[in-house]
Amino acid sequence: MVVHRFAGRVPRGGTLPHPGSVTSILPHRTGPLRRLTLLFALVTVAFAAPATARGAPQARLSWPLSPIPAVTRYFDAPDTPYGRGHRGVDLAAAPGQQVLAADAGVVIFAGQVGGRPVLSVDHDGGLRTTYEPVAALVPAGEQVYRGQVLGTVLAGHPGCPVAACLHWGVRVGVGFAEYADPLAFTGEAGEFRLKPWDG
Ligand SMILES: [Zn+2]
Fold this sequence. Notes:
Layout: H1 22-25, H2 31-53, E1 71-73, E2 89-93, E3 98-100, E4 105-113, E5 116-123, E6 127-132, E7 134-136, E8 143-144, E9 149-153, E10 164-172, E11 178-180
Antiparallel strand pairs: 1-2, 2-10, 3-9, 4-5, 4-8, 5-6, 6-10, 7-9, 10-11
Bound molecules: zinc ion.
Zinc ion is lined by residues 73, 86, 88, 90, 157, 167.
């Protein structure tokens, strides 16, 4: 009786499923379709992103790594100035990878902050970008252009799930006291770049 359900699905020259596998076959009818839908969504995103970027005005900030990296940890605005949170985004990198200026500006700081090697650049419009941990190749006071190599990525950023992560921050406001989400300035939705990390 149950076998009738599969009468139309048996491939030519194929065999009927073993009765014992009847229950296990039903979920498979949705599995591949769901995977196909997901794949289609990802492909759509992959092709839609460059298409919309073409001809669009230049983003306020460019990515500090090339090619565009995976985001391993997103911005998490702290509730209070000293509260918990994540004051930037972590970008997957290789140790020694070049760190690029997100926009033209002046290197305002290159040195240690609490034992962490940090580099900061001030840009027009009251924007400051920070990069860490970075081995700086440019000194404070240096004028840099957009995309200029500022230094190289070092391993060791806390919570980094890959070989090295560049922690990229954006500060705005009076005295650059406020932290903003860097991805909001790149003109791209960072979620599309998120990749699952298993460990
Ligand atoms: Zn971080």
